[in-house]
Each structure stands twice: as C-alpha cells, then as structure tokens.
Records
---
Amino acid sequence: MTQENSILSEIEPEVVDRIAVGRREMFSRYAKMGGIVASAPLALALASNQAFGQSLPSQVVDVLNFALTLEYLEAAFYDQGNKSGVVPREYRAVFRTIGEHENAHVKLLKGVLGSASVAAPAVDFTAGGQYADVFENFETFRLLSQTFEDLGVAAYKGQAGNLMGSGAILTVALQIHSVEARHASEVRRIGLKYGWDSAFDKPLSKNAVLAAATPFLA
Amino acid sequence: MDSTSRLSRRHLLKWTGAAGTLAVAGAMLPNFGISAALAAELGDGDIGVLNYAYALEQLEAAFYTTVLQNPFGEMQVNDQRILTQIRDHEIAHRDFLKGALGRRAIPALEVDFSAVDFGSRRSVLGTAEVFENLGVAAYNGAGQLISNPDYLVAAGSIVSIEARHAAAITDLLRPFSAEAAGRGVVDRKGLDKALLPSQVLPAAAPFITTPVTAATLP
C-alpha cells in the first residue's frame, strides 16, 4: 500500500467515508457544471482511488493547506500555553478544550490532505519580542488567543467560496469555522468583552490573514 | 406541496367549521391561492436556502424579543446586556435575509413559545442555547446547498455570529466552562454539527405555528 493509504487508515473511518462521499458528490457536481471545471484529467483524478491530496483539485488543496497552517499555529500556541502555567486555574478547562479542538483540526486536515499536507511551520509567539511575556502574562496570552481565534473565523469564511462544489469538504470547513467562532466568543468573554464585534462577522482574504499570522511564524 | 395543502385544508376546515362551507372550501383549494397565507413553502435552490435561514432568524428574533419584553426574575445586568445584543443581531439577520429575498420572501411566521417559562432564567437560557446550536448546525449543513458565492459568504457571516452567541449563552449558564468552549456540541474530531433542512425543520416545528415546508430541500 502507498504511504497515503497508511495515513488515511490512521484517521477516523467515518470522516474518510464522509470525505469520500464528498469527493463523489464533487465529481458529479463538477460534471454537471459542464465545461467549467470538468476537464478529463480532473475527472480521472476524482474517479481514482489515489490519496485525497493528490486527487483533490489544486484549489481545494491550497485552501486546506492554508487552513492547516493556521491550525498548526493555533495547536502549537495552546500546547505551549497550557504547559506554561500562564492560564489561571479557573480558565484551564476552557483553554485545554480549545487546544484539544485545534489538535483535532490538524489531525483531520492532515488526514484529508495525506501526502499533500504542508509541514508544521516554525513558530515564535513572542513575534520577535513584541509579546515577550505571552507565556507569563495571562492578559497577553488571552489577547493572542482571541486574535488567533478571530483570525481563524475570518480565514475560513474568506475561503468558503473556494470550496464551493466540494460537497463534504466545504461542510467540514464550515464545521471547523463555527468551532473557531465558539472559541473566539468564550476567550473574549474571559476578557470581559462581548463575544462579537457586530451582527455580521467579516471574511478576510488569504493575503490579509497571512499578513496577520506572519509575525508569529519564525 | 402535499403536506402544505393538507395542512391548509385542515386549518381551513377548522376555521370555517360549518359543514355547509365544505364544498366552498374544497372548491377553493386546488388553485392553492389561499394556502400562502396559512403556510410557508421555502422554495427552490438558493431562494429556498435563504428562506430557510429567514425562517430560523424569524424564530430567533421573535424569541429574544419576547425574552426582553418579559424579563425573568433574576435577570442580571450582564444577562440583559448580552441578550439585548443577541436580540439586535437576530433582528439584523432577519431583516438582512428579508431584504435579500425581496418579493420571494416567505411571510412572517407565527411562533409558539408556550413551552418556554419566560419567568425562569434556566428555561430561557436553555431554550436560547438550543436555538443557537440548531442555527449553527442548520447553516453548516446548508452551506453546500448554496450556489451563489455571495450568499455563501453572507451565510458564513451569520453562522459564526450564531456560534459566538451559542458560546455566550452557555457561558451565562455555566461560566468559564469547557462547555462554553464547545465541549458537548463539538465532537472529538473537533467538528461542530451540520444538519440538513429535513432534520432542522422538525426540531423547530414545535415553536412555529405556521406550517413550514421545504418540498425541494434535502
């Protein structure tokens, strides 16, 4: 068996089933859209049994790798933060739960992408010293947590259009998107703020998200 | 359409009552001209999805309006401020969708909150939690039914606010808990729920007097 298949066997069978169903739906939907995207190579790729990362349209792979990069960043942030002791006792359950979700998102996206997954980036949560006390001062930690969660919400929203027609993959992205929003709301609440800015959350472009995230990538 | 006309007929028969009017009622029914006022068929495609969202936002807006008109006994300043903002958001969502739908919008729905004890903080916030989580799952499941990218982004801009509300309501019930960060609604793969209209509408039906049908939505 290929390496991709061994990676797939490690992720949850039901998720693989859902993605596989999504891939079939995507194929039929693309086929229905006629000449727009249903090129012969794509049709062959979608119909094959190769690993998902290779058979997904490159636009979908790009979106999922972009999402994976953000999830790596978040997972590393909570892994370090939860170990550091910066989180006061009364909030530990919240940040432990958020960290578990971010790690689950990494696992899920890596499972979908298989060998097409990008590697985890090197991180610097002090952003070159700008947030030097991030793992010592809870208010700094909380503020960065809120920033990452709000950024994640805006990033997934900004990419939803690029996943149209991908069936279950779009749905999975939406199911992550709303989890990030739950996190953002609770982290804001811990900072004695409202869980939102207004009645509508704004999307952010990939470039805008990367510009915000780059200071934390070493 | 079958269930719409059947429900309409039942209402009509109940309201007219006298046996002598039955023939008249029967004669009027086949053209469906009368059923629009008594029932709401969501419609096809993107219009159907937007009407579906509009129905749910009508329900939420009506609920929070009732909550704030009948404040429960122990309503603290914090409860009141958060519930007021959520009410205003739901009204903004409702009006946005109504505006987007224009003449294709379903009529205003009649609601039934007789199952809610508006004098009880627990009953009100527990119901709010159910509505918000149902809304999140509904938008998550409806995303892949949308064809117009602008509508997908609009739905995305609303769903993350619903998720933020859900976390804030849970935080009011169980402050700073893992549940407020999503544990219990988010599965171990880190995913929120996604439900189809055929799963959501029956859950909302006990609170909506007007029969709502979705003949062509899954």
---
Amino acid sequence: MDFELTPEEKAFQKEVREFLDKECDENVIAETESMLGEGPYSKELIRKMGARNMLAPRWPEEYGGRGMGFMAETIKVHELTYHRGPFPLDAVEIGNTLLICGTEEQKNKYLPGIARGEIEFALGYTEPNAGSDVASVQLRAVDNGDELILNGQKIYNTEAHFSDYHWLLTRTDPSAEKKHRGLTMLMVDLKSPGITIRPLVTSAGMRTNEVFYEDVHVPKANMVGEKNGGWAVIMSALYGGMGGGSSGASRYHFEMLVKYLLEEKPEIVADNPWIPDALADIDIKLHLIDVMGFRASSMSDLGLSTPYDGPVSHIFGNESRRDFCNVVMQILGPYGQLAEDSKWAPLKGVFLRQYMDSPRWTIVHGSSEIQRLVIATRGLGLPRK
Amino acid sequence: MDVRLSEEQEILRKAARDFLTDKCPKTLVREMEQDDKGYSPQLWQEIADLGWMGLAFPEKYGGGDMSFLDLAILLEEMGRVCFPGPFFSTVILGGLPILDAGSDEQKQKYLPEIISGKAIFTLALTEASGKYDAASVKARANADGDGYVINGTKLFVPDANVADYLLCAARTDDKARAEDGITVFIVDARSPGISHTVLKTIARDKQCEVVFNGVKVPKENILGELNQGWSEMQKILERATIAKCCESVGGMQAVLDMTVPYVKERVQFGVPIGVFQAIQHHCVNMLVYVESARVIAYETAWKLSGGRPYSKEAAMAKAWVSDAYQRVVALGTQSHGGVSIMEDHDMPLYYRRAKAAELVFGDARFHRKTVARNLGFEVA
C-alpha cells in the first residue's frame, strides 16, 4: 500500500504546477471568473499546455499525450482548477471516448488537434426533454445517403459558443423498441449551415447555450461507433475506468479564506467561536476529496476500478464543495451577499459567485441522484424493479 | 499511488477473516458482554499462537516483524466482528508504547509476555474530567525512597479488570506546566492499593474505575523520562486514535454488508425495498461514508507505518470516522426498520460500539480543534 505519487507523476505535477504558476495569469483567471467561456487568454493558455503535451497526458504519445494514467489526468485537473484556469476541457473528455470508439481515421483527424489545444468540442447531450433521462433525446438525424440531416434542439451545451465541434447525441431510430437503441453519436462542425446558438445565463452569470438544428447536413464519416449504437459510445466511458474528483479551486479558495480570516479579519473568528470547527470540517472534506479522487484514479490505472469508485468520489466532492460555499457565506455574514463591484465586498466577491454557481455542481454531468442510482444498481447490485 | 494490499496483507486479511468468522460469532460477542472477564482466555491464547499480539513487534522479542499497517488490517477485521477482549488495550495501549519508549530491560521483560499472550496491558490515563489533555491528569506520584507512590482515581480504563499491568500517567511535578510534570509508570496490576470497579457502558466493554491508594512503583518502572511523559502520551493517543479508526472501518463495513443483502430480500408493497430510491440513497450514502473513512484511516496508518508525520492526519481521520460511523449505523438501522432495533439483532451491537468508538480518544469536535489549530486558529 502506497499513497505516494510515483516519481513520474510527481515530476508531472511539478511541471504542470510551475507552468501554471507562471502562465495562468490574471487575464486567464478573469476569463474563468467571468464564467462567459474561454476567451483569447484561456485559449492561448490551452495551446501552450498543448505544446507541452500537458492537456491529455493519458493519451498515447502518437496523439500528443504522454502515455500516462488517470492519475496524471487528475493531477492536471487539480492543478488547472487550483490555478483557476479554463475548465472543464470537454474536448479532452470527448477524445477519451474517441480513443475507445473512434475509427483510426477519426483518431488521427481529431486527437492530435485536441491534444495541441487547437480543437474545441462541446458536449451535446441534454435537450429540453432529455436531462437525467439522456436516452430520451429527440434531435432527429435522418439517413440521406452519405450524410444525415439533423433537426431539433439541444440545451445547456455550455461550450458550444466557443467550440469547433459538437459531440452530438441524436435519434436515428424513433421506432426502436427500447429508446436507447435508436441513438447515434455524431461529431458536427459547429459552423455548418442551419445551426443557431442562443445564449442562456445561469443565476450565477454563467453563459451556457441552447443550440438549434435546422436541416443540418452531416457526413456519415462523422458518426462515432455504429448507427443506432450511440448508447454504447456513452457507456464506454463508464467501463474504461474513471478519474476521481479533486478539490482544485475549492482548495485555493479555502486557503484564501483562511488567510483573510487570520490576517485581515481576526475579529470575525473572535466573535464566532463556531468558525474554526466549521473550517476544520471543510479542511478534512477537501483533503478527503483529493485522497478519494487519487485513489479512484489509481484503481482505474490498475484496471481495478469498481463501478462506484469514480461516482463516489464525484458526489462526495461536489456535495462537499457546495457545503463549503454555504459555510463561507455564513462566516462572512451580511458581507457575503455583496456583489463584486461593491467597495464593501470581501475578497472581491469571489465567494458570492462561488455560492451562486455551487448548485450547478451537483446537477451537471450526472446529477448526484443519477450518480447514486448508478452506484446503487451497478455498484451495490440493488434491484431496479 | 497503489492502495492495494500486498499479497502478504491479503493473506493476513483472509486468514483473519476466516478465523474470526469461525471463532468469533455474535453469540460469543453477546456472551462476552455478560461475562465478568469480557474475553475468552482460550480464544486469547489462540490468537497469541497465531502471532496476532506480536504482529507488529520485532522478531527479537518473538514478534512477527510486520508493520502498523499490517496491524491496521487485523484491527479492521476485529472491528468487523466486534471482537471482544483486551487486544486493543494490550497491543495498542500497552505494547507499542513500551516498544516506542521503553528501556531495553523493559522491552526484554514485557514484550515477550505480551506477544506470547501471557500478559494483558492497559492504559490508565483519563480521570474525572473525562478529557484527554495534560491538565486533567491529577493523580499524584510522589518520590519515596527508590520508587514512587501513586494516589488517585482513573476512569474509563479499558480492561483493567483483567489487566496484569497498567501504564499509568501520574503527576510528578506540580509546579511545572501541565504538560511538563507528568510521568508514565508501568504498574503491576496486582500491587497492593489498586482496586477496580467495572463500569456499565453502552458497548458493554469492560471500562473500569481504577483507584490507586498508596501504590508503590519502583523507579525502574518509569516509561521514558521522568516528567516528560506527556509527549509519549500524545504519541500513544495519536496511535490509538488511528487504530480506533481502522477498527471502526471494519464495523462500518459490517453494517453495510448486513444492510445491502437485507434490502434486496425484504419485500414491502410487493417489491424488495432496495427498489425504492430512498433506500438506495441510504445505501449509497453508507458506502460513501465507508469508503471515505477507509481511505483516510489507511492513509494515516500508512503515514505512521512509514515514519511520515501524521499528527494532523490522525486528528482528521478520527474527526471524520467518528461521525461517519454514527451515520452508517443510523442509515443501516433506518434501512432495516423495526427489526434492527430489537435487542437480539446484530445492528445494536454496532450501534452501541459506534458511539463508544466516537467517545474514546476524543470525539469529532475535539479533533477538529486540532485541525483548526493546524490551520493557524487559536482554539481553546
């Protein structure tokens, strides 16, 4: 039993950390904190990481990776989010699936570009009537010889407005007896005629999108996996192992808060004796997020992950980080509610933004309830009916 | 990072599980709750013969030369079956402190006795305050000729009813800071002037009140340095804290392993109750607590084992595991329903032990204070 990173992983961690210390500057952080999506500084940073083979460390070297494991991926995510760099990088997530399900031609066409930070992908699963029940997607793809013609709508596709391609789950067989058997995965050039992207904004001010498809023509060469085999493509990610969660930005914000309370506002703690206990609890949870996350990644690298290691790590992480935001608001008292442009706002209002954004964390990418369903049925073997 | 058990550790775990499944059924656990001694001398000798007492001690004393991490595996298995008896007291609270701080003569004398199963040890630290701090040590040890005379009352001393020796923390200098005037003595439990009363406790373990009334102890029985006993006591407590976490993880796992099959079988409204999302979420939440508790308990045991700093981590682990075990037994009980609050059900065995494990060596709030101090906050 060894909880230490390998020398190779430590070296990678050091390299990424030192790189981001220098390159993830205030311009990049401002873009991240604006929650409007990747701007020019973020894209530049991603390309610089790509040039150093840092973006997709798990991929084989021939595609621009380093041939490392899930652990390296988790290290990258932790460092990137701790430094408040652009995240998530959906293109890399999608590339992970392409590695398993893509043709040689597709892998050669997309993976090196993703690894260099030159190709951005946006996830395109959710629709107004297909949220947690993702197999209910209705965006229709009709066979038309060498191509498919698409009509329908996606929603909450957060990366769509700054991406090159859409990773799109479509319905190719509306009469399939089981709805998940009539789905097909496509990669769509977002510049294709007939695509309209409209902004949606969360209560935290985060930009996301609804995307409309009207007679959009997509070559069949852009199909990933089999026609009507889209569900297998989605599920492949679950069976290939999974990286664990990371405290990332929350650890950074925690350190920032502790420093603020100790150095600038000791009277807050003096007046509220419950605060050290609450902060100790958060410290423990953030530590646990990282150990559980690393553990889940390590088990995946060893080929021993259970169906619940990853989801357990993620629900624990997301719920704990959400709790942290709530505690911080209580610690800051009435000042916690002040917007960033108020001269009275503590720490430039960063915690108000985090608090407003935090409900999203337990909803996106599989809500906590869906993750619990997966753990209960696939992990613990509880009956479905 | 590779958090798998080694092949040797897997063998140890399997051997321990098989042995305990066979030799420590719940009937024995219940019987020992009612028993005056609280343990089976025959089973005690069997585990000594298996090398369990000596597992983490050097070969030269008759030990197995394995590590604290290996011992952690054994403790988890013991927690799983609610193993009754003075193993924890003897090995964690008695033997390892002697290995750590004892003189060569003390190690030669006591460790082989512990390892062979001949001697039962325990720790007499806490007093009327029920706290684990230096200021709470009021028992006095006054110099007297070639030795010391101890007077005072210790509370919550585990297994004192069967102990052959007690490590007793007593004040030897009143004028110094609370932390600087404490000495730890190895006391023969049969010395004149020692008396004990078994306390009736939630886990029906054998915690005792121990009265020291003019108990004479030769000075060669000082463990470590005169007046410097508190630093050793902190190490003892930190080590015990980690060990208790590992034991608790076993109990938590047992509760989960009891609950999941039950909800698959128990039929209400015409279906197994495990179909219901409310029950599924209870089970998943239990799993999250078990997994998080295990990873932090073993991470800390690994640190201790490898000579890495572990004080802060021990506090983090105990704070987390104490609360997590409470939640697991609560959710397990809720998932089972009425059957599991019956006295003859196994759940109350764990429900009672979870609370005892929380209260010993400092509860979650106590340990979060240590974590907060590490963050830089002044906490009373």
